[in-house]
Design goal:
Number of strands: 13
Mean pLDDT: 92
Shape: globular
Order of helices and strands: HHEEEHEEHEHEHEHEHHEEEE
Structural class: alpha+beta
Low-confidence stretches: none
Distance between the termini: 38 Å
Length: 315
């Protein structure tokens, strides 16, 4: 995967630049379509055989990058790809922060092939690896993470999406004296941030999308942290789709090895608008300035990349 890292960077940068004209537009379909088309075009230029295992829908929902889609122009690399052309479509079109374009990749057969459904997740950084249990009470997890991080419980920052389904978690966390940091969008951003010490995220917790869970897990594994998850099918159709994708134990906890089973994985994200881990796109003279994060699982290394793209003038 390491040899493809800069190619994947070009994919996310091009998608972010393509989405930029739609920031603040209110048009989710146009924004997502622009980013998707840019991603597909650049993925098809790469020397690899790849399959989308985490995408934006099924084949009949084109032009989205659909589950099972084959991309690349051939080569020795056989790759599974998880992708979100815009993680944070709503903040993008509302001109708000917390929008990125993101991709994760790993050798064929090593990313969880999961349908677009709800997933319960907990994530922590490297110091607390091995100390969490998704099935345990949140209070027990908080005590373990505080001890691992050398903090009092009252010093913990627990990040959770601001949704009615999380009210019980929020109330219980606050009862311990810990700080709840609510966010509206950016699941992948905050899961990844648990492994970036300067971010101040001690625990990421909540129920969100399974695709975002796999994307975040690639970054977390690469950075030495831990995520645990559990799929939450809401009906027989979602149960059937899990079984068709080879997931039969829906009661069991998915470990980081279940979500991403190889260290030879990469995670690349480019900011569309400002967020906790990277800045959004800037304009300077007649150029776009992009900011990206590249994470290499083999090296356990983070790179922050600033790139310049000329603004294309209308003909």
């Amino acid at each position: 995967m390491q040899s493809l890292l800069l190619d994947f960077l070009k994919v996310t940068e091009s998608a972010a630049v393509a989405a930029l004209p739609w920031v603040g537009s209110g048009d989710k379909i146009a924004a997502d379509g622009a980013a998707t088309n840019a991603m597909r075009e650049n993925l098809n230029k790469m020397k690899m055989h790849s399959t989308i295992v985490i995408g934006e829908g099924e084949i009949d929902e084109a032009p989205m990058l659909y589950i099972g889609e084959k991309l690349g122009k051939g080569g020795s690399h056989e790759v599974d790809i998880a992708v979100d052309p815009i993680e944070g479509t709503t903040p993008t079109v509302n001109g708000q922060g917390n929008a990125i374009t993101v991709i994760a990749a790993a050798p064929k057969g090593t990313l969880l092939h999961a349908p677009d459904m709800y997933m319960k997740k907990i994530a922590v950084g490297p110091r607390a690896k091995g100390k969490i249990d998704l099935d345990a009470p949140i209070e027990d997890n908080m005590k373990a993470v505080a001890k691992a991080n050398g903090k009092e419980i009252t010093e913990l920052n627990v990040f959770i999406q601001d949704r009615p389904r999380h009210k019980e978690y929020i109330d219980r966390i606050r009862e311990t004296g810990a700080k709840v940091r609510l966010f509206n969008d950016g699941d992948v951003i905050y899961a990844t941030a648990t492994c970036i010490e300067r971010s101040g995220v001690d625990i990421f917790l909540g129920i969100g999308g399974a695709p975002e869970g796999v994307l975040g897990a690639a970054a977390i594994r690469s950075l030495g942290g831990e995520m645990q998850a559990k799929l939450l099918p809401r009906n027989n159709d979602e149960i059937r789709r899990c079984e068709e994708m080879g997931i039969t134990n829906l009661e069991g906890v998915l470990t980081i090895d279940d979500l991403v089973s190889s260290d030879d994985c990469v995670f690349v994200a480019t900011g569309i608008t400002d967020n906790l881990i990277i800045d959004g796109i800037e304009t300077e003279y007649s150029n776009f300035i992009t900011h990206s994060i590249l994470v290499n699982g083999r090296e356990k290394q983070v790179r922050y990349v600033k790139s310049t793209y000329p603004i294309k003038q209308p003909v």
